[in-house]
Design goal:
Largest sheet: 5 strands, antiparallel
Number of domains: 3
Number of helices: 17
Strand content: 5-15%
């Protein structure tokens, strides 16, 4: 169906209702997908019969423009189109609609987007370290310790007065600052959160692995910093309160050393961030694959349940190498093991010389498949060995990939294809 077909079906299902006497309540909107009050004390809405056509129409407009896809979200665009329908089509007959009406909606979307898209600076609280440190940047994302941020923002002290206490209650001590342009407000805030997540992955790639798991946005998915445990056994109450912040034993100046020692990786991640935020990717598939894989890695580290963490960490590797299928996952993993660790499929991977690279890769793929398809219980299966193996593997792959991509982007013959990229690495690095 075309956009015009969807619009005709929606207009056929516009309904006008007189307000019932008494208090207005949700019952008066029964059977309507969307509805609004009119100045003439009516309810105008779209009946449930159009429940497929409405989102389909929005989807058509959403997908036809890269600017709209990047700069807004589906729900905001839905509301804009709903307003146009209620303003322009309530008095129209469905059989009078033409392509000019579709063009009119598109034009009003464009006007709305131009009026509402802006440059927004977002300030995002993060859990990194508990000790103060010098400000640093990863590409377009700047990190300030909370005391430094508050000093910089003295003019806005009254607006920010509750921020330090809120952050302290969650173990967050750093503020990430990022500018997002060309988006409406809601989408810009979403974009900022995702950009900060990716920048935090940069830190997770250079932090000691046991200190990296709890690096996260304060409002994002993360492992809890504070843990309270209470229980009763044999009639006796017991309990404890624990601060699980991974940097408790690390002193001031440690973050500066990590950032300095990891500058090569962090600079490379900054390149991925620049391309992600500005939408100026030279090789979109390869550059976006790193961002997608990094996000899955970030999610996997923040997952408390081992079985779910394993599925997320292997998914990070899958999307990084654009695997597409189980057979390609195996092929790409074996190739990556050779490129990163210089190990061939028949070489042993462990000290005891009992597991070959091929057997290790097949085991990883098998474990995730058995969890996702219910062969193994999600809640009862012990995967204490698989999780740390995948944490190190995914981290090493993400590090190697971004460094190699920097060099590949400088090659005038570079192609936006994962197989070409991996073959180039094998031939040049």
């Amino acid at each position: 169906m075309s956009k015009l077909d969807y619009l005709i079906h929606i207009v056929e299902n516009i309904e006008r209702r007189q307000l019932l006497p008494g208090t207005v309540n949700v019952d008066q909107f029964q059977g309507l997908l969307q509805g609004k009050f009119t100045p003439t004390c009516e309810i105008v809405g779209i009946r449930q019969e159009a429940k497929k056509s409405l989102p389909k129409l929005v989807e058509e407009f959403f997908n036809e423009s890269n600017e709209i896809q990047r700069g807004t979200n589906f729900n905001d665009l839905l509301q804009v189109i709903m307003n146009v329908i209620f303003d322009d089509f309530v008095e129209r007959k469905a059989n009078t609609l033409t392509e000019a009406d579709v063009a009119n909606i598109k034009n009003k979307i464009s006007i709305w987007f131009k009026q509402n898209s802006t440059s927004l600076t977002a300030f995002v609280p993060c859990v990194i370290t508990i000790f103060p440190g010098a400000s640093f940047s990863i590409g377009p994302v700047k990190f300030d310790f909370i005391s430094q941020f508050m000093a910089n923002e003295q003019a806005n002290a009254s607006i920010l007065q509750n921020l330090p206490a809120n952050m302290n209650s969650t173990g967050a001590s750093w503020i990430a600052t990022v500018v997002v342009s060309g988006c409406v407000r809601n989408r810009a805030l979403e974009f900022a959160d995702l950009a900060v997540d990716l920048a935090l992955v940069g830190l997770q790639l250079v932090f000691p692995i046991d200190s990296a798991e709890r690096i996260a946005r304060m409002n994002g998915k993360n492992l809890p910093i504070f843990k309270s445990t209470y229980y009763r056994t044999n009639g006796r109450m017991s309990g404890s309160n624990q601060n699980q912040h991974p940097t408790l034993g690390l002193g001031q100046g440690w973050i500066e050393k990590i950032v300095f020692d990891g500058r090569e990786i962090l600079n490379s991640v900054g390149h991925r961030m620049d391309a992600y935020l500005s939408d100026t990717k030279k090789l979109p598939k390869l550059e976006q694959a790193w961002c997608d894989g990094a996000y899955w890695y970030h999610e996997g580290l923040a997952e408390p349940l081992e079985t779910i963490a394993v599925t997320k960490l292997e998914t990070a590797i899958d999307v990084l190498f654009h695997s597409e299928s189980t057979s390609k996952t195996k092929q790409r993993l074996l190739q990556a093991m050779k490129l990163v660790y210089k190990l061939t499929p028949d070489q042993f991977i462990n000290k005891d010389q009992t597991i070959t690279v091929k057997g290790f890769v097949e085991g990883l793929i098998r474990d995730r498949s058995r969890i996702l398809h219910g062969t193994w219980s999600t809640l009862m299966t012990n995967m204490r060995e698989s999780r740390p193996n995948l944490m190190f593997l995914a981290r090493d792959f993400l590090r190697a990939y971004t460094l190699a991509l920097d060099r590949y982007l400088a090659d005038p013959k570079a192609q936006d294809n994962i197989e070409k990229f991996l073959n180039w690495i094998e031939a040049n690095l």
